[in-house]
Every structure is written in C-alpha cells, then in structure tokens.
Write a structure and sequence with these properties.
- By secondary structure, the protein is of the alpha+beta class.
- The protein contains nine helices and 15 strands.
- The strands form seven sheets. The protein has a three-stranded antiparallel β-sheet, with no helix packed on it. Strands 1-8 form a two-stranded antiparallel sheet.
- Strand 6 and strand 7 form a beta hairpin.
- The radius of gyration is 26 Å and the shape is elongated.
- The N terminus is likely disordered.
Length: about 325
C-alpha cells in the first residue's frame, strides 16, 4: 500500500515556544547577541536594530495583534533606519512623524478616537503595563510606545497585511506613509531599503534564514520553513519523516521550502499517490513510477495491504 505521511509542524515552531517561555519573565529588558548589552524597550530614544527587533518580538509574542508577516520590523527601518536617522526624534508638537516608527500627529490622534482600537488597550495594559489612555506623542520616543502606536494604526484597516515584500511595500504606501502631505516614500524606496535590511547584521551573522535568540545563548531562531544550527536547511514541516520518505525538501521557484516528490507521489508532504495505470499486455507502470514489461498468465495485483486484506488487481 502507499504509505501516508502526516503533515505537521517542524522544529521552528518548537523553538519559538521555548523562546516564549524563556522571555515570559523578561517583559521589558533583554540581552542583545552582540555582547551582554541589555536592551530596555522603555528607554527614552533607544535606537538600533537590536532595540527594534526586541521590541517587535515582544509585540509578536504578546499575541495582541494578528501576524503582520514582518511588516512592523520593516517599517522601523524604512521610516527611520531603526532610529538612527537624524530626524527620528522631532519635537512632538510637529505635524510630522515622531519616534522610530515615525507616527505623524493625525494618525496618532485617530488612535484615540476609534472604539474598536480602544478594545486593544486592556491587552496592552496586561502584557506591557502601559495605560494607553495616558500615552502622549512625546512618549513615542520610547521604542515600545512607538511600535505599539504603529501596530495599532495598522490594525485600523480591514485589508489583510500581505505576506510578500512587493505587496507590503504597496500596503505601507497606501495605509502608513500617506497621511502627511510631506510623506515622500515610494514603493521602490521601500523595497530598496528592506533589501539592505535583509543583509546579515553583525548580531545575526551566521543565521541564514533567522535571527539570534538573546535568551538562549544567542542560538539561531529560524524563520518558518527553515531549520538547522544556522537556519540554512529547508524544512517542509512534514512529520514523522521529511516529505514522508517519498521525496526531499527543496526550494521551489518562489524561494519557499517545498517537497520535491519522487515518482508518482504528490501532495504537500508527498503523502499520496494516484492509482497506477496498467496498459496493454504486458506494459506495466508501478505505483512508485517504474515501467517494465511483464509476460505471464493469471491475476496480478498492483497494490496489496500488508495484512493481505485489501488490494487492487
């Protein structure tokens, strides 16, 4: 009989659960992998990739918002180069953007007006100890406040956040970078910036498809679809064996891990095989894709169960 593989989660999701447990008691401070530098996401005017990544991770792990497919991280770099741009911390009374995520005055004020946004305030209080009712624009100089403001803003829109870069660039331009008349960002500029962002930083060097986890001796935390010590091995997420033993996990044309099935096997995990045609007399194609000629007289079975209680002749 054709064996059936069972699609399941790979090693990546398990690693994420372990990290969530380790970070549960470190809500506001953490360790960067570039040494033992502490990261305080409540610090005034804290900047840099380590600060941004730690802030984004905390928000993701809180589960307050749906998955943004990495858009919040990208916006921080596109808007202010992770806070290193000289205009990051403007006067909060100005109309233009303020903080790492460059929230402009109109967008920030709108967050205070919409009731469905206010429903998230209790979750923010629970996970971060921040009373959003009292947050003012000057408080966006703190990374966690700026990031939460940006994520609340994105939550306002019913359009789902795209998963891929081009779609995210267009989404950002339409919903995030268009409120202020001086918003001069472009889709091409967004794509150019995140290309630079994707180049390995000194902190995450050696993690091809992932980031180093500060709370677990800086081991690599792999993106979904990858595994290994350096996150350099594709992981198609099939259990109990890779691609059910009927193929191998490779990279598809769209750059995503995907099972490459052998013979007539098919499915996300190469778990199914269609019936084998037997044509003519003596030309046979087996269920695993082999052709041969067989001359004989009698009844022949193309597939039989191991218990010999079911088969196809």
């Amino acid at each position: 009989m054709c064996p059936f593989g069972i699609p399941g989660s790979g090693t990546t999701s398990t690693s994420k659960r372990e990290i969530q447990r380790q970070r549960r008691d470190t809500r506001h401070t953490g360790l960067a992998c570039s040494g033992a530098t502490k990261i305080d996401i409540l610090a005034e005017k804290a900047t840099g990739p380590a600060v941004v990544e730690e802030t984004v991770r905390r928000i993701q792990e809180s589960k307050i918002f749906p998955d943004d497919h990495g858009l919040l991280r990208k916006i921080a770099y596109v808007e202010s180069k992770d806070g290193t741009d000289k205009n990051t911390f403007r006067d909060p009374s100005s109309e233009a953007g303020v903080g790492i995520w460059q929230m402009d005055k109109v967008a920030f004020e709108d967050l205070k007006k919409q009731d469905f946004i206010k429903k998230k305030y209790a979750d923010i209080k629970k996970h971060f100890g921040i009373d959003w009712n009292t947050v003012q624009r000057k408080d966006l100089n703190k990374p966690i406040n700026a990031a939460l403001a940006a994520r609340l803003h994105l939550f306002r829109f019913s359009a789902p956040i795209p998963k891929h870069d081009k779609g995210q660039a267009e989404y950002w331009k339409e919903y995030y970078n268009s409120n202020h008349p001086n918003a001069k960002g472009t889709v091409d500029g967004f794509l150019k910036d995140i290309k630079s962002l994707k180049e390995p930083s000194s902190q995450d060097e050696g993690c091809k498809h992932g980031l180093r986890n500060p709370s677990k001796n800086c081991k690599c935390l792999c993106e979904p679809g990858y595994k290994g010590e350096k996150c350099d091995l594709p992981d198609c997420g099939c259990q109990p064996s890779p691609c059910s033993g009927n193929g191998y996990c490779g990279i598809s044309d769209d750059g995503k891990p995907r099972c490459v099935c052998s013979g007539r096997w098919e499915g996300d995990c190469c778990e199914t095989c269609p019936p084998a045609p037997i044509f003519g007399d003596p030309h046979i194609l087996t269920i695993d894709g082999f052709e041969f000629d067989f001359f004989g007289i009698g009844t022949f079975w193309s597939c039989v169960s191991r218990a010999n209680d079911f088969g196809v002749d």
